């Protein structure tokens, strides 16, 4: 399937512009996180989505906040932005502010706004697939399914989890409008795909679940817009679960503590080593979808907003153990009884 | 006319489905078939959209429940046997249990675990997993011992905002009968004095409540000892006040459970009692659990693996003679 | 793929005869178990492999006892026999004799002789797949891999487990000589396959794992001999994991407590409703592989042996809780310390 | 020159690989990369066939280990974090743990769990799961607190015929140093008196041994109290004799652990001590665990979630003033 040819017809300009904005916003935020980490301002891990912004943003931009469900994973800064996550949520989570959705109780990529349809991931890979399926089943039971989509991303490594398998299979049985994106970035931490699976292409799994499979070059901005936008549209139109496999390369270490030196130079130099943001800008300019000035403006605005969010989060109070209620229950049980 | 413990579980689910459109049931073979134990018999006919057969995917079943709960539903998941919830362990303890603390948004799911031993069921269809789940913050673990509790606590579990592990004892399913589902209205978190006594307190839960009462009756007949039996009803939260009040009256404690001996409910009960009621005790508090092996298949081994009226009487005689 | 045409060339007569013997032995044993259950002589569940004997025996007969690994599942009475399990093991397990490999500690289908390469299943479906893979990895590390095969059976329902997925994927990554047979008997307990998976055919999953896929009509005796025999041979020859999907129908309830009344008459009347033993006998006679007399003799011998095994097990002591050591550890820890 | 706790774990694995051809290592990112914590650094180069990267399949990793053990190997599985062993839970407690009792054939696997909290690690990279595994018959659960124990107990774990859950504390990895790997040769199943004292006994394990010693030193300085610290070393089997002997000397017990408060090691310790040593106690035995919430991410919350020298001192002061 070559999707790029039909891109400009199918993916609307609004969608493509939103996608690019989210990508650049994510990149700028993550560059900032990286410096904060290196300056010792962040305790705990910092995980970046460098190189995966096109895939992530294509998904996030195709979803409708307030209606759809999105369960972002490790490298979905861009998708989160596209789905409407404010910078301050990210800054607060990483900097441990007592304000914001996580209140310092959980951090970094584990943030979310579940009441608004953006789930707060747990670390255990693959776990979100069935949870999103459950959200969608609920919507069906509530008579609110029409035109709703649920989506999540996993990595190549996460496809080896039983949770991924059980969740996708269940969604297929229930014919739920679930979009699962596999960002096959060729490594799970240090582990190359040759130690992760033995099939030729992970998209070959789609047929075995009875779902549609889509392949895309995850570094190709417009192809991502097209293929992922199309997959979301198919799910929305009642086509059941969609499995999209995007091939790309993680352009950072696994986390900022990791230099990723195990990634061979040949892989870095290969076609997936290119930066999807460079590709995006080139494609946008070539096709006259955006001008240099617009791009510069988006970058500039993002830089200012990121700075502001980080500055704000840094000034906010951190959690105070003496004010903390230490309650794991919503129910008003006498906590001494627990 | 009489009703059984399994009738109570079925009836509670029917009531919930009828009265609350947020409720739905999900589990293996629970729809047309009515479940391995018939706990959902006829419900799929009455509520065809809300009683659904699941694939053999306990992890995804729990995950689906979590997602549905986040969207405002009140799922009840049936594990075919408690033992198979080991596959759903991660979703329950890491996803459901942590969610309220992490995000402020509770996850009201109810996971039904057909629990405990019956003759010939063997190592993988007999387990009592209450201690495993109760160890984790954020999980409510209930262990009804009566028909009325099976009914009212299941209804209450589904109404709670927190995830509930509902440990229903398979041995009680058809054996335990009552006149009606009507009980004393005690809420989850409150223990019950099942039998009053003066000489020693047995703190227990689930099927062992009945074995304790048998042992108490035997000791009363044999030697006039009056044994108090406390039914915890829920093991997390655990109503230590009722337990302490009983121990204050009797001065002697036997914590009794059917689960494996290391850790678990009996250790938690003893530790709480000695922490807050050390001065009340006239004898060392004792524990009686199953043996420290997998639950054996053969009925003769099984009967000796779990506590019995005989072994409970033995423990109580030791306790009383201190 | 139509394999039946080439059957007689590939599958040796010895193999086919062994297969048939195991099938009929299994059927006679299971008929006996069924009567014992109905007479109240067996405590706990009784699970039969009626209708699945051809598949199970084709696997068991293709394996080499003492060299290969076999992890039988619920409905593998025939495969167990073919792999050399004596009747007495089965009788003892079901009747709770204190003698024999399980000593009353575990029962019925959970029996095994792990020291001899026949694993003792746990109930949790799918769990054996990775365990057999581990046995094979060990053999590789020990330099004893050459020509060794490990095999297990699962049902259609078990394919929905995360354990199945993780295990098969791992075996594929390690290119282990693992044969996984899916006995797709159209039901998992009462659940039809439409509630279990959404793909057209479970064999479509093979490609997604990067393993060979094989399909067979599980009621066709000679086709089973051919396809399953071939799959085992491929694994043995270094072809990596093999996934065989056999279509058939469970000709009993899930267990003997279940009348299976949820199986529609149309399904029972369909082509998978035929009894593989009838098919076997017809094929054996038609092709002059066996005579009526031979078949009658095999049946007779089996009947006598089953009777003897059951009679023996019924006379044997049952476990005595006072003699039981109640030890879950091999290590000589002071048990009071546990 | 000094060596660390993580060095000990690495070194033990090198020794095992060198001396026993049955040993192999399996886990995510443990080969060329040397593991998330570098516990296997360089080992794949030395033993390329026996140090293997696993896919993200904890259930299958444990299953593979079980199968290999049945074929005579001695696998060591590294879970990337203890928390992810929740996925392998079923294989460990139902497959490995039951096998010897069921079949008479032991399953000598060692499962390494990088355990316990560190600042900023949050709810899913901080857990202490010893109580979960210790509840099940047939599992050995070890919790080394020293460099020498990390070394010798890992070697001993692999030599044991039974499945071992090896809980290694991440906080100790690089922080804890020693002159050598050489220790006192205590076997698994024996506790150690880490610090002698007369006025109260703290029974603990793993990283909390060091917090207990700090608290003891502080109390000694402040008020002359002499606190004895017992390091359990293994929580199953649990060396109650050494604990009782200590309590016999001091008359006072604080059971201390970093895990969640419901059930767990501290409850088991208190229950055993009161069962067999009730008359030895001059004060109600106390427990101190983490808070009953998931482990929080923020370092300030984390530091208040787990026991600290301050909270241990507080508990001890209460215990001593009874
Ligand atoms: C069940 C589970 N096991 C192990 C881990 C530890 N872990 C975190 S990220 C990671 C690698 C993930 O690889 P992949 O799925 O390819 O995603 P990527 O990091 O490449 O985006 C691992 C092993 C985990 N989070 N969950
Ligand atoms: C993980 C797990 N969940 C549930 C069960 C209960 N159970 C036992 S057999 C069975 C149905 C199995 O169906 P299938 O895999 O198709 O095998 P079949 O019985 O048809 O041979 C179920 C649900 C189990 N054994 N393991
Ligand atoms: Mg990856
Ligand atoms: Mg089936």
Largest interface: B-D, 49 and 49 residues
Overall 3D form of chain B = globular
Percent of residues in beta strands of chain B:
15-25%
| Share of β-strand residues of chain A | 5-15%
Number of helices of chain A: 12
Q: Which blocks of ≥5 consecutive residues of chain A have pLDDT under 50? A: 1-9
What is the CA–CA distance across the termini of chain A? 57 Å
Tally of individual domains of chain A: 1
Stretches with pLDDT under 50, minimum 5 residues of chain B:
none
Ions and ligands: thiamine diphosphate, magnesium ion
Give the class of chain B from helix and strand content and strand pairing.
alpha/beta
Structural class of chain A: alpha/beta
Termini of chain B, distance in Å? 45 Å
**CATH 4th-level superfamily of chain A:** Thiamin diphosphate (ThDP)-binding fold, Pyr/PP domains
Helix content of chain B: 40-55%
- Strand arrangement across the biggest beta sheet of chain B: 3-2-4-5-7-6-12
Q: Provide the helix percentage of chain A.
A: 40-55%
User: If strands are numbered along the chain, what order do they take across the biggest sheet of chain A?
Assistant: 1-2-3-7-6
């Amino acid at each position: 399937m070559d999707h790029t040819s039909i891109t400009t017809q199918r993916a609307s300009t609004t969608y493509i512009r939103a996608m690019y904005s989210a990508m650049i916003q994510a990149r700028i935020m993550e560059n900032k996180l990286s410096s904060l980490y290196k300056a010792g301002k962040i305790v705990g891990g910092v995980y970046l989505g460098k190189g995966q912004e096109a895939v992530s943003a294509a998904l996030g931009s195709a979803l409708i906040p307030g209606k759809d469900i999105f369960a972002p994973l490790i490298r979905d800064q861009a998708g989160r932005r596209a789905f409407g996550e404010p910078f301050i949520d990210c800054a607060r989570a990483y900097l441990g502010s007592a304000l914001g959705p996580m209140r310092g109780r959980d951090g970094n990529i584990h943030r979310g706004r579940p009441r608004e349809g953006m789930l707060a991931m747990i670390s255990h890979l693959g776990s979100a697939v069935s949870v999103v399926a459950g959200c969608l089943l609920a919507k069906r039971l509530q008579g609110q399914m029409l035109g709703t989509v649920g989506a999540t991303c996993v990595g190549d490594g996460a496809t080896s989890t039983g949770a991924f398998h059980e969740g996708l299979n269940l969604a297929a049985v229930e014919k739920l409008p679930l979009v699962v994106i596999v960002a096959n970035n060729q490594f799970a931490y240090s582990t190359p795909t040759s130690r992760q699976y033995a099939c030729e292409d992970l998209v070959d799994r789609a047929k075995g679940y009875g779902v549609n499979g889509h392949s895309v070059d995850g570094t190709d901005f417009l192809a991502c817009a097209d293929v992922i936008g199309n997959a979301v549209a198919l799910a929305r139109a009642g086509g059941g679960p969609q499995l999209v496999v995007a091939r790309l390369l993680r352009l950072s270490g696994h986390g900022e503590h990791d230099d990723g030196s195990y990634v061979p130079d040949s892989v870095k130099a290969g076609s997936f080593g290119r930066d999807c943001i460079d590709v995006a800008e080139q494609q946008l300019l070539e096709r006259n979808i955006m001008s240099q000035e617009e791009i510069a403006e988006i970058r500039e605005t993002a830089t200012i907003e990121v700075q502001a969010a980080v500055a704000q989060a840094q000034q906010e109070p951190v959690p105070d153990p003496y004010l903390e209620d230490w309650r794991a229950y919503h129910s008003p049980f006498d906590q001494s009884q627990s | 006319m009489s009703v059984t413990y399994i009738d109570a579980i079925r009836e509670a689910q029917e009531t919930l489905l009828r009265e609350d459109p947020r409720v739905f049931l999900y589990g293996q073979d629970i729809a047309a078939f009515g479940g391995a134990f018939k706990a959902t018999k006829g419900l799929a006919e009455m509520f065809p959209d809300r009683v659904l057969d699941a694939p053999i995917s306990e992890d995804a079943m729990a995950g689906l429940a979590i997602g549905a709960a986040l969207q405002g539903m009140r799922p009840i998941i049936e594990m075919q046997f408690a033992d198979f919830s080991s596959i759903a362990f991660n979703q329950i303890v890491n996803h459901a249990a942590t969610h309220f603390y992490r995000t402020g948004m509770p996850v009201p799911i109810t996971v039904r675990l057909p629990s405990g031993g019956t003759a010939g069921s063997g190592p993988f269809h007999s387990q009592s997993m209450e201690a495993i789940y109760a160890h984790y913050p954020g999980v409510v673990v209930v262990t009804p011992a009566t028909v009325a509790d099976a009914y009212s606590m299941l209804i209450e579990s589904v109404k709670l905002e927190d995830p509930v592990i509902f440990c229903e004892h398979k041995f009680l399913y058809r054996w335990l009968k009552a006149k009606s589902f009507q009980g004393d209205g005690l809420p989850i978190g409150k223990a019950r004095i099942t039998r009053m006594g003066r000489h020693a307190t047995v703190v227990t839960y689930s099927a062992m409540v009945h074995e304790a009462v048998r042992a108490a009756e035997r000791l009363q007949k044999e030697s006039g000892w009056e044994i108090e039996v406390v039914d915890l009803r829920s093991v997390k939260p655990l109503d230590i006040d009722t337990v302490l009040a009983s121990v204050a009256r009797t001065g002697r404690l036997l914590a009794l459970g059917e689960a494996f001996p290391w850790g678990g409910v009996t250790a938690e009960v003893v530790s709480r009692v000695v922490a807050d009621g050390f001065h009340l005790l006239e004898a060392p508090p004792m524990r009686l659990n199953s043996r420290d092996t997998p639950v054996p298949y053969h009925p003769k081994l099984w009967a000796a693996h779990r506590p019995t009226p005989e072994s409970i009487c033995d423990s109580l005689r030791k306790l009383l003679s201190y």
